[in-house]
Amino acid sequence: MATSQDTVTHPAGALGKGQGALRDPVLWGFVAAFVLLFWTPELIIYMEWADFWIIFLTEAFIWSLFAVAFNLLMGYGGLISFGQAAYLGIGGYTTGLLLKYLVWMNFYVALVAAPIFGAFAALIIGYFCIRRTHIYFAILTLAFGHIVYLIAFKWYDFTGGDNGLIGVPVPEWIKDPTFANYYKFVLVICLVSIYLLWRIVNSPFGKTLTAIRENEVRADFVGVNVQRHKLYAFMIAGAFSALAGALIMVNERSVYPDLAHWTQSTQVLLMSLLGGVYTFFGPIVGAFLLLTMDADITQNYPEIWQLFLGGTLVLILFALPGGIVGFIQERDVNSADDMATQMAKQMAVFSRKSWYFFCGAVAFTAFFSVLQAPDSWWISEDWDFELLSLITWGIVPRTVLQLIVGAAVLWWLLRGIRAYQPLHRWLLLAATILSIVLHIYLETPLSGLLLVFLWLVFSFYILLQSDVRRAFSDGVAVEAKDAAQEAAE
Amino acid sequence: MVDFIVNVLPVQFINGLFIAAGIYLVASGLSLVFGVLGILNFAHGSFYMYGAFFVFTYVGFTAGDFWPALFVAPLIVVVLGVVMEVIFLRPIYKADPLYQLLLTYALVLIFGDLVKIIYGAENLSVARPEGFESTITFLGSQFPSYQIFVLLPAGFLTVLGLYLFLNRTNIGRTVRAATQDREMIGALGVNVRLLYTGVFAVGAFLGGLGGAVLAPMGALYPGMDFDVIIEVFLVVVLGGLGSMAGTALGALIYGELKSFGILWVPELESVFIYVLMAVVLVARPQGLMGKQVEGGH
User: I want to staple A190 with a disulfide (CB 3.0 to 4.6 A). Which of A65, A346, A389, B157 is the partner?
Assistant: First the structure.
C-alpha cells in the first residue's frame, strides 16, 4: 500500500524477551476493556436505553473480530482477500448444520467446530491461492469465495439454499429477553480471540509475515519458508473469521447464503481500510464506525448502501490511505525529500484537510440526525430532554445553522488553498456549496454526507492532479504553496 | 454411445461455442486493458452491465430499433470509461497494483448502485430483434437463431478484429510494444497517456459490446456485473492474464466445460471450471498461455 513506512504498531517493550505475558501492557488493556464493557448491558438497562444498543454492540464485537482476523492477511501479510466472507459463511454453516441436524450435539462443541473447519477450508483454498501474489491472489480468493456462496445457495437438500437454515436450536440462556447474556458471551470470546491475534502478530511468526509483505524475495533468501508462512496466516485468518461467522449465526439463530456473499467481504475490507490497515486496532475502529453508518443508512436508504461503501472506499484510498488510526499515528516524514516524498507530503496535507472536513461533517450530521429523529434508535422514546424542543423550531433555523457551519468549514478549507489557481478554487467552492445545498435539500443526515464525500473526492482529486503535474513542471509553484501552507499553519 | 456422439456431442459443442463467444466478448476487453495498462479492472463487469442497460434504454426510446443500439450503447460506455480513466486511473498508474484493484473495486460498488437507482432493482429484458426470435434447425437440432447469426459472428469477428488490429496495424504494434515495455515506448516518442486512454476506451467498448450483444439473451438486473466479472476473471486467469490468445482459449474451454458439465451435474456445472482452474494453477501458475513471469503485477 501507499504508506509502507507506517509499519506494524509495536509499543515499546510490549513483548520483550523473557518478560512473560503478564508484563504485556496490552493484556492489561484487554482486561480493563473487559471490566468496563462487561456490565454495559446492565448500564443500558438501568438507563432505559433501547435494547438495540446491546444487539448493536454484540454485532460490533463480532465484526471487530472478523475485521482483525481479515487484517492479519491484509495489513500484516499484504494479501488482500476479496473472499473472506466465505469463512464467515463456512463458520456459520458449520455450527448451524451441526446444531440443526445432530440432536445430541453440544452447543460448545459445535461452536469450536467452526474455527477448526474454517482453518481446514482455508488450508484447501489457501493451497491454491497463496501460489500467486497480489492481483492473482485477489482474483482467486474472490473466485473461491464465490464458490462457497454458490454451494450454500444452490445445495437445497443440505444447506436449505436461499431459504437459509432457520430455527437453529441454541441453549436457553442465550434466549434471554435483554440479549445481555449473549452480549457477554460474545464479549469474552472476541476479546480473547483478538488478544490471541495480537499475540500472533507480535510473535516471531507475525514479524516474519510482515517481512514477507515488505520483501518476499529477501525473506526467501534468508531462509523463510514464504509459502508456508502465508498458508498459516491464511488458515489463522480463516479460523477466526469462521468463529465470527458462527457467532453471527448463533446471534440470529439462522444462517443464510448472504453471510458468504461478496458484499460481506467488501464490508470487512472497508472496515480495515477505514480504521487503518497497518495498525492492529484500526479495524476495530473501522468496524464500529461502519456499523454505525450502516445502522443509519440501511434504515433510511437501503438502496444506496453500496454506493456509500464505494464512495467511502474511494475517499479513503485518495485522501486517507493510512486509515483513521494510521492517520492519528502518522508522523512527519524526514526532510531531504525527493520528488516522490514531496508528492506524498502534499497528499498528506490534502488528506488532513479532507479528514478534518469529514470529521466535522460526521459530527455535524450526527448532531442533526439526533435533533431530527427523536423516535429513531439514537435516543429511546422516553428520553425527556429539553433539546427535543429544538425540533419545533422547524426547518428555517436548522437550515441557517447548517449554512453557518458549512460556511465556517468552507472558510477554513479555502484558507489553506490560496496558492492554487483560481479555477481550482472556484471548482472546489462550487462543489462544496452544491453538496451542502443538496444536503439541505434532501434533508437527510447521512446520505447528504455521502454527497459531500463524493464531491470532495472529485474536487480534491482534480485539484491534486493538477498540483502534482505542476510540481513536475516547475518547482516555483510548489515553493509558493509550501510557503503559503507554512503561513497558514 | 453412438447416439451421444451423433446427437448430443455436436449440439453441446455448439452451445458451448455460444457461451464461449459471449464470455470472450467481455473478457477480451479486460485482458487487453490488463496487458497494456497493467490494471485489473474490476469495473469491467460494470461496463458490461451498462452496455446491456443502455441497449434497454435505446430500444425503449426508439420503440424496438435494436441494431443501432449494438453500436450506440458501447459508445456511451466508452464515454463512461474514458471519464473514469482520466479522473480515477490516470493518477494511479504508478501506485501499488492492489491500490488500483481496490479503486476499481470501489467503482464497481458505485456503478452498481447507480444502476439500481436509475433502473430499479427488478429484472428487465430486451426483446430479440425482429427476425431472430425463432429457432433454426441445424444438425437435426433446434438452435436460437440470434445466437447463431448474431452472437457467434460477433465473437468470431472480435477475435479476428483484435488479432488484425494488434498484429497488422501500426497502432496495434505500438499497443503490443506497450505490453512489453511501457517506459521504452514513451522514450520512443509515443504519447503514452493518449495510448492508455485509447486502449482503455477500446476495452470499455468491448465490455459494452459484450453487454449489448448478450442483452436480448437474458434478464438484466443490478448485480449482473458481479456475476460476469467472476466468470471473466476465471477465463483470463485460465488463459493467462494479458494474453489475448490465452483469453480466447480460456473462453473456449470455459464455454465447452460449462456446456458439457450441465449434462452431468446440472446443479454444480459452475464448479467444474473452478476445479480446472485449480489444476491449471498448480501445473502452470501463469495460466495456459501466460508469460513466464512470477509475481509480476
Answer: A65
Q: Are residues A251 and A346 in the same domain?
A: no
In a domain, A483, yes or no: yes
CB within 8 Å: A465 and B107: no
Name the range with the highest mean pLDDT among A16-20, A305-309, A461-465, B81-85: B81-85
For residues A171-195, give the mean pLDDT.
Answer: 86
Geometric angle at alpha carbon B99, from B93 and B104, rounded to 5°: 80
Domain ranges of chain B: 2-224
Is the same domain home to A150 and A68?
yes
- Is B180 exposed, middle or buried (CB count within 10 Å of its CB: 0-12, 13-18, 19+)? exposed
Asked if A125 and A260 sit in the same domain, the reply is yes
A458, closest residue in chain B (CA to CA): B87
What is the four-CA torsion angle of B242, B244, B250, B254, rounded to 10 degrees? 110
- pLDDT > 70? residue A6: no
What three-state secondary structure class fits B124? Answer: strand
This prediction's pTM? 0.75
Please report which confidence band the pLDDT of residue A191 belongs to, taking 50, 70 and 90 as the band edges: very high
Of A78, A146, A314, the CB nearest to B103: A314
- What DSSP string describes A376-432? STTS-TT---GGGGGGGG-HHHHHHHHHHHHHHHHHHHHHTTTTS-HHHHHHHHHHH
